[in-house]
Backbone:
C-alpha cells in the first residue's frame, strides 16, 4: 500500500511538470502570462468545485471560517506566484531545470518548516541525512541544467 502512495505522489509531480509546460504553451499561444495563469486557476477551481459537489461535502459555514487563521487563506497567493514564475521561466530555462529548481526550493522550505514545526507541521529536526538529501537535489540542478 505504501508503494502505491509513493507512486501516486510521483504521478502528482509529473502532473505539475505537465501543468508548467501547458501553461507556458498557453502563454505563448495567448500572448499573455496573466491570462495563462488565470486559465490554469480557473480550470483547477472548477475541478475542485466538482469534487466538492460529487463528494457531497459540507458547504463552508461562518463557524468553519471562524476556526481558521488568516495565513491559511493565503495559499492561493503563493500558488499564483508559483504558476507565474514557472510560466515565465520554462521557456527561458527549460522544463527540467525549472522543475528541479522548484523541487530544491520546496525541499529547503520544507526542511525549515519541519525543523521549527511551523504552521502546525510536526517537528522533524534537521540532521545530516536531511542536509545530504537536500545537497543531492542541488547537485541534480547542476547536472540537469547541462
Residues:
Amino acid at each position: 500500500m505504501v508503494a502505491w502512495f509513493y507512486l501516486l505522489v510521483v504521478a502528482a509531480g509529473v502532473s505539475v511538470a505537465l501543468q508548467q509546460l501547458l501553461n507556458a504553451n498557453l502563454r505563448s499561444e495567448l500572448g499573455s502570462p496573466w491570462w495563462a495563469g488565470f486559465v490554469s486557476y480557473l480550470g483547477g477551481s472548477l475541478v475542485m468545485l466538482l469534487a466538492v459537489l460529487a463528494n457531497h461535502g459540507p458547504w463552508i459555514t461562518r463557524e468553519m471560517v471562524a476556526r481558521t487563521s488568516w495565513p491559511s487563506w493565503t495559499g492561493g497567493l503563493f500558488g499564483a506566484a508559483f504558476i507565474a514564475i514557472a510560466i515565465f521561466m520554462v521557456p527561458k530555462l527549460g522544463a527540467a531545470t525549472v522543475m528541479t529548481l522548484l523541487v530544491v526550493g520546496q525541499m529547503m522550505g520544507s526542511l525549515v518548516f519541519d525543523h521549527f514545526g511551523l504552521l502546525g507541521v510536526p517537528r522533524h529536526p534537521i540532521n545530516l541525512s536531511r542536509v545530504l538529501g537536500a545537497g543531492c537535489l542541488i547537485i541534480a540542478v547542476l547536472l540537469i541544467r547541462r
